[in-house]
Design brief:
single chain, 399 residues, alpha+beta, Dna Ligase, domain 1, D-amino Acid Aminotransferase, Chain A, domain 1, Rossmann fold, six-stranded antiparallel sheet, four-stranded antiparallel sheet, 25% strand, elongated, Succinate--CoA ligase [ADP-forming] subunit beta, succinate-CoA ligase (ADP-forming) activity, ATP-binding
């Protein structure tokens, strides 16, 4: 689960981490009120969307010459103007794709006199089963170019969760950032605080870009992104409450309500499968036969008729879907139960696209009989290869 920048800073501040003063705003009036609470005279007005590259982004409605999603305002009137231009408009960044994201929230912060910018991030390193702290002296909007062109300027420090954060990890961070004296001590303390926040909150990713040294010799988190392990959110109701469903795909949100794993893709053949590995294989074989999957959808091992019906509704909510391939291996889940669900779902949603079903496993013959006697134009398949060939052919024929 992702959260907004202002929410991430609120969480980090609870661990003693320095962040500039700031307030969230949902309207122009709230943005102005937020600025009036700050000392000024320099303010920063920041669009709050779940995507990076906001500073270099462009608003669809404002033209190419307009300023991006992070703006310096030199007066409260400037804050008012910027908020009016940003709220309700669509910000397109390198991470949003061409469709962009509508800006519904702003973050108005106090301006900071920056002496130097750094980069610091943390993530779970699956290869080593450690937590990786990644730092660079080259913070700012062009960190992707640094990673590509000068990777030697990026240092990775791994921390074993069994021993936790140790003093030498902090010293390594300060050394990699080329800090000395009081700033080095600040960096060591900051690294320890970030590790504590990362582990205590069950975070998956924390990125600070930039981490800045101010003219007054203070390290501050100027911008940050955080994401969390969804499986651990039950331990953090305060974090879960920060979820902004308007930033997520509506179909994915609906799927989550029914315990379905769904991700929208760019193809035209909808997939309903039980098991993540089988779903990946199904998508691969669709591509092997010259078409593209429209989604990843795993109904899991305990699919009911109601669950299968909801899965069909979610697949068909995508206007790009021109055919559906159901690929089920009945291990724990019986094929006859799945077949009953498919028939009920096809009738309820008034299916109007080709449907190919491949069943295998427990009670497979009973399942096939249910499909064959349903009176519906369901196309059976003998195996996965046969299923992929049939659905691709049906979609091409319908086109």
């Amino acid at each position: 689960m992702n959260i907004h920048e202002y929410q991430a800073k609120e969480l980090l501040a609870k661990y003693g981490i320095g962040v500039p003063a700031g307030h969230a705003a949902m309207s122009v009036e709230e943005a102005v009120a937020a600025a009036e609470k700050l000392p000024g005279p320099l303010y920063v007005v920041k669009a709050q969307i779940h995507a990076g590259g906001r500073g270099k982004g462009k608003f669809k409605e404002l033209g190419q010459d307009a300023k991006g999603g992070v703006r310096l305002a030199h007066s409260v009137d400037d804050v008012r103007k910027d908020a009016g231009e940003m709220l309700g408009n669509t910000l397109v960044t390198i991470q949003t794709g061409d469709e962009g994201k509508q800006v519904n929230r702003l973050y108005v912060t106090d301006g900071v006199d920056i002496a130097k910018e750094f980069y610091l991030s943390m993530l779970v390193d699956r290869a080593s089963s450690h937590i990786a702290m990644i730092v660079s002296t080259e913070g700012g909007m062009d960190i992707e170019d640094v990673a590509h062109n000068t990777p030697e300027k990026i240092t990775t420090i791994t921390i074993d969760p069994a021993t936790g954060f140790m003093p030498h990890h902090g010293r390594s961070v300060a050394y990699a950032l080329k800090l000395e004296g009081a700033l080095a001590k600040q960096a060591q303390k900051l690294a320890a605080q970030l590790y504590e926040a990362f582990t205590a909150l069950d975070a998956e990713m924390l990125e600070i870009n930039p981490l800045v040294e101010t003219e007054g010799g203070e390290l501050l988190v100027l911008d940050t992104k955080m994401s969390f392990d969804g499986n651990a959110l039950y331990r953090h109701p305060d974090v879960e409450a920060m979820r902004d469903e308007t930033e997520e795909d509506p179909a994915e949100v609906e799927a989550g309500k029914h315990d379905l794993a769904y991700i929208k893709l760019d193809g035209n053949i909808g997939c309903m499968v039980n098991g993540a590995g089988l779903a990946m294989a199904t998508m691969d074989i669709i591509k092997l036969n010259g078409a593209f999957p429209a989604n990843f959808l795993d109904v899991g091992g305990g699919a009911t008729t109601e669950k299968v019906t909801e899965a069909f509704k979610i697949i068909l909510s995508d206007d790009a879907v021109e055919g559906i391939l159901v690929n089920i291996f009945g291990g724990i889940m019986r094929c006859d139960t799945i077949a009953e669900g498919i028939v009920a779902a096809a009738k309820e949603v008034e299916l109007d696209v080709p449907l190919v079903v491949r069943l295998e496993g427990t009670n497979v013959e009973a399942g096939k009989d249910i499909l064959a006697n349903s009176g519906l134009p369901i196309i059976p398949a003998d195996d996965l290869g046969d299923a992929a060939r049939k659905i691709v052919a049906q979609v091409k024929e319908a086109a």
